[in-house]
From TrEMBL:
UniProt cross-references to HAMAP family, sorted A to Z: PriA
GO annotation, biological process: DNA recombination; DNA replication initiation; DNA replication, synthesis of primer; double-strand break repair
Protein name: Replication restart protein PriA
Annotated residues for binding of Zn(2+) 2: 544, 547, 562, 565
Keywords carried by this UniProt record: ATP-binding, DNA replication, DNA-binding, Helicase, Hydrolase, Isomerase, Metal-binding, Nucleotide-binding, Primosome, Zinc
Catalytic activity reported: Couples ATP hydrolysis with the unwinding of duplex DNA by translocating in the 3'-5' direction; ATP + H2O = ADP + phosphate + H(+)
Pfam families membership: DEAD, Helicase_C, PriA_3primeBD, PriA_C, Zn_ribbon_PriA
Name of the gene encoding the protein in the UniProt record: priA
A single cellular component GO annotation: primosome complex
Subunit structure: Component of the replication restart primosome.
Cofactor note: Binds 2 zinc ions per subunit.
Record family assignment: Belongs to the helicase family. PriA subfamily.
Organism, as annotated: Mucilaginibacter ginkgonis
SMART domains associated with the record: DEXDc, HELICc
Cofactor (UniProt): Zn(2+)
Length: 829
């Protein structure tokens, strides 16, 4: 109607835009462009649109046409949010590939890709940005109203705000308020990168005067002798102008930090916090900015460079501490010097301040850090800085493949074998390593995969010539690999030399380390106290009310926890089934290891690192700091302790039970066990001292354990690759898993059967199942899985996926499918 009424625009074209909505819908939607926005619409800009009955969304424009949609009347788009596109053409083609490859919707990809503040929708919750004081005098009327309302009610949705202002679209106002830092998105997680800081102590300069110092001593010795000890220790330690760290002073003087604090309060001592990175620069402890490469490193670097002339991807296999990171830095320098951007991917858990600072020291302000634990505000900042080119390098976890690079020249995927590169939930269920390879393709960027324990797939690709290959065989500076000792739990049980879960070998090694003031890391791949509670009278085991799993006892909370859905209940003192008081715990987790250790080694300072102790803000980093500053003697943890930790004084590593790894029911069990054991072992004695690794197991002759001892990756690979071929697994076969879910087990059964039947019509005996998975009910959804395995080379992947896509769509149109969820997962492991 508008075009007839608006004579001014009468001669203009009628334009339509196709947009991606942040929703799981199969098709892009088309909107009509109001004439006055004809010149402003552009691909990659955000549009505010209405979808469904009354909901508003931020959508991304992906095409501009003069073609009206055939099946429906296009609504007008309501507003445009950007002067310049926030999503690049290269990104859109990457999104497209991802939706296609991983069998999901473009909206799923958009949701994963954009920080929340860039995709406001009616339901998005807004809060006042507390860190940023609001100067009311500078606010416009509408902003004033919003700030007022948010002071009364700390959280409002975008649609609440629309109602409040009595207007349909408020996104442009909110966008400006975001940019002015007045508001943010409400989130629970919020952890920013903080430089690591260390506290140093100085004596108040008033006491440089010897007379006054003497007076001070006399007073302190009378009234507070412990304080006098501290001052004495300080004078001793600071003698040659050395800096005195607070924790070292506490240790040397034997006084608690409370006593030091008392001296600080009296202004006798002065505390000063210093960034650790600055410290390193001053002391020159870290490698020089222009580290000279060893002969081996130099040769490998040349080889990588050379291979990049022919190959898009090169795999760098280098044992721990061989200098992989050093090579990455050289290659990054070269790419940046050539005017290119660089993406450096790391597993979430390895992205510690240690690594960040190491890179910051080389590249300064040109480096951005992107991490899912950062808050939305900061993610938007990184996004904008990558888009406008101020960040030349991004150091990031999985989701940084989605950043708006302009001219990416190099992608480094460190620890390329890591499972945490895979996103399991929600869609897109992508693997960031594989996505990075495609991303390299989009930009014409080179991709370097690095690992001490490469995935079987990547190694295969290197062996068959698809990827280039380079190998660092020696640790830098001749640091020795740790000595590995395997101890049979069965034998020590028989000889009664095992104390709770600690063999005599491990006990002795720990005691020795402690007596030398060295540190110990213990690895147990399970959190909580005990995974199963069992009634000895009737064999009853408490299970989760929502999931088909037994509940894990947590001593710290005194409750039984479900590790799948978070459900908790009080731990019973008598059996809920038969009333017997004979309850016992089966198995053991990190809590129990910590608990028993504190009884056996009461003098040791023990800390636990697992999901339970690292939930709070900064807690992960805090534990690492304490370990580094030697306030912890023994760290007990889950796989978190296996990643990227590099501490000089950790000389003993204990694997409490290797069996849970080795017996994992999945075709990757050997590969994963090798990776885990080799990575954990790599933590021992990284600098200077040779470390010791103790592996406790019921199966000391297990092939993988022997491979770990010999550090024989090639043997692992040769075994695995022939098994994979024989039993039809990747890299020879592709796998697509379908999780079929329903709240009604009966209906689920029939629907899964039906879907499998449909799949069989197309793919024959390449379809396996449906089967009940290990945990067949989670959050009250019953689950069956169907697996599709097909030959890598003889079937067209895209044809197969087209068939699957239409099959699922067709299934969803049947009555049968009501209430049923089908989740395809491509390359599920
Ligand atoms: P990786 O990434 O393979 O585990 P790193 O690059 O972290 O190995 O190197 C291990 C240690 O050796 C680090 O402390 C690093 O600073 C040091 N290092 C490696 N190569 C050199 C070099 N060429 N010059 C100086 N120090 C080096
Ligand atoms: Zn019972
Ligand atoms: Zn549960």
């Amino acid at each position: 109607m508008l075009e007839f009424a608006d004579t001014h625009n009468a001669g203009r074209k009628t334009l339509f835009v196709e947009v991606i909505l942040p929703l799981a819908i199969a098709k892009n939607y088309t909107y009509r462009v109001p004439f006055d926005m004809n010149d402003a619409v552009a691909i990659g800009k955000r549009a505010v649109v209405q979808f469904g009955k009354s909901k508003m969304y931020t959508a991304i424009i992906v095409a501009i046409t003069e073609q009206a949609p055939e099946k429906y009347e296009a609504k007008y788009l309501m507003d445009l949010l950007d002067d310049r596109p926030v999503v690049t053409a290269a990104q859109l083609s990457f999104w497209n590939w991802m939706a296609d490859y991983y069998l999901c919707h473009p909206g799923d990809v958009m949701n994963a890709a954009l920080p929340s503040a860039l995709k406001l929708a009616s339901e998005t919750k807004i809060i006042l940005n507390k860190e940023h004081g609001v100067d009311r005098a500078t606010l416009h009327d509408k902003e004033f109203l919003i700030v007022d309302a948010l002071e009364l009610q700390p959280e409002l949705t975008v649609s609440d705000i629309a109602k409040l202002l009595g207007q349909k679209t408020v996104m442009p106002i909110l966008k400006l308020m975001f940019e002015k830092n007045i508001i943010s998105i409400s989130e629970s997680v919020n952890e920013r990168y903080k430089p690591r800081r260390k506290t140093f102590i100085k004596l108040n300069s008033a006491y440089q005067d010897q007379e006054r110092l003497k007076e001070l001593f006399e007073i302190l010795e009378k009234r507070a002798p412990k304080q006098a000890d501290v001052v004495l220790a300080y004078i001793h330690m600071s003698r040659n102008g050395a800096r005195v760290a607070k924790n070292e002073l506490a240790e040397a003087s034997g006084a608690g930090t409370a006593i030091i604090k008392a001296l600080i309060d009296k202004e006798i001592l002065i505390a000063e916090e210093v960034n650790v990175s600055r410290l390193l620069e001053e002391s020159g402890e870290e490698p020089e900015l222009t580290a000279t490469l060893s002969e081996e490193q130099e040769a490998v670097l040349a080889s990588v460079r050379n291979q990049f002339n022919q190959k898009e991807v090169v795999l760098l296999h280098g044992i721990t501490s061989s200098g992989k990171t050093q090579l990455y830095i050289k290659l990054i320098e070269e790419a940046v010097a050539a005017g290119k951007q660089v993406l450096y991917l790391l597993p979430e858990i390895a992205l510690t301040t240690h690594v960040i600072e190491r890179l910051r020291r080389y590249f300064g302000e040109a480096i951005g850090v992107y991490h899912s634990r950062f808050n939305d505000q900061e993610r938007v900042e990184v996004w904008q800085n990558v888009l406008n080119g101020s960040y030349r390098i991004v150091l990031g976890a999985r989701s940084s493949v989605f950043l708006p690079f302009e001219n990416l020249g190099l992608i480094v995927v460190d620890e390329e074998h890591e499972t945490s590169y895979k996103q399991f939930d929600p869609a897109p269920r992508y693997n960031a390593r594989d996505a990075a390879i495609y991303l390299g393709n989009v930009y014409g960027a080179k991709v370097l995969l690095g690992s001490a324990t490469p995935s079987i797939e990547s190694y295969y690709n290197a062996k068959t010539g698809k990827y280039g290959f380079a190998e660092l065989k020696f640790r830098y500076g001749g640091v020795e690999l740790p000595q590995i000792e395997v101890v049979s739990i069965a034998e020590e049980t028989k000889s009664k030399t095992i104390q709770s879960h600690f063999t005599s070998v491990l006990m002795e090694d720990m005691q020795q380390a402690l007596s030398k003031k060295e540190q110990v890391i213990l690895f147990q791949n399970r959190r909580g106290y005990a995974p199963v509670m069992l009634c000895r009278t009737c064999a009853h085991t408490p299970k989760c009310v929502n999931c088909d799993v037994s509940l894990t006892y947590h001593k710290s909370s005194g409750m039984l926890h479900c590790h799948y859905c978070g459900y908790k209940e009080d731990s019973p003192s008598i059996c809920p089934a038969c009333g017997s008081a004979h309850l016992e715990y089966k198995g053991f987790g990190t809590e129990k290891v910590e608990d028993e250790l504190s009884i056996l080694l009461p003098e040791a300072r023990i800390m636990r690192m697992d999901m339970d102790t690292t939930r709070a803000k900064n807690s992960f980093q805090n534990i690492l700091n304490e370990l580094e500053e030697k306030r912890i003697d023994i760290l007990v943890g889950t796989q978190m302790v296996a990643k990227g930790l590099d501490f000089a004084d950790v000389t003993v590593i204990g694997i409490i039970s290797a069996d849970s790894l080795l017996k994992y029911p999945d075709f990757r069990a050997n590969e994963r066990s090798f990776q885990m054991l080799a990575q954990v072992s790599g933590r021992a004695g990284r600098r200077g001292k040779q470390g010791k690794v103790v592996i406790q197991t019921y199966d000391p002759g297990h092939r993988v354990i022997l491979q770990v001892i010999e550090n024989d990756y090639a043997d692992l690979y040769n075994n695995e690759i022939s098994e994979r071929k024989a039993f039809k697994y990747p890299p020879f076969y592709r796998m697509i898993q379908f999780d079929v879910k329903h709240k009604d087990p009966e209906k689920l059964f029939h629907q899964a059967e039906y879907l499998a039947l449909e799949l069989r019509k197309q793919f024959g005996d390449r379809v396996i199942g449906p089967e009940y998975p290990l945990v067949s009910r989670i959050r009250n959804y019953y689950i069956k899985t169907i697996m599709l395995k097909f030959e890598r080379d003889s079937i067209s992947l895209s044809k197969a996926k087209d068939a699957i896509r239409s099959m699922i769509l067709q299934f969803q149109t049947t009555k049968l499918s009501k209430g049923c969820i089908v989740q395809p997962d491509v390359d599920p492991y």
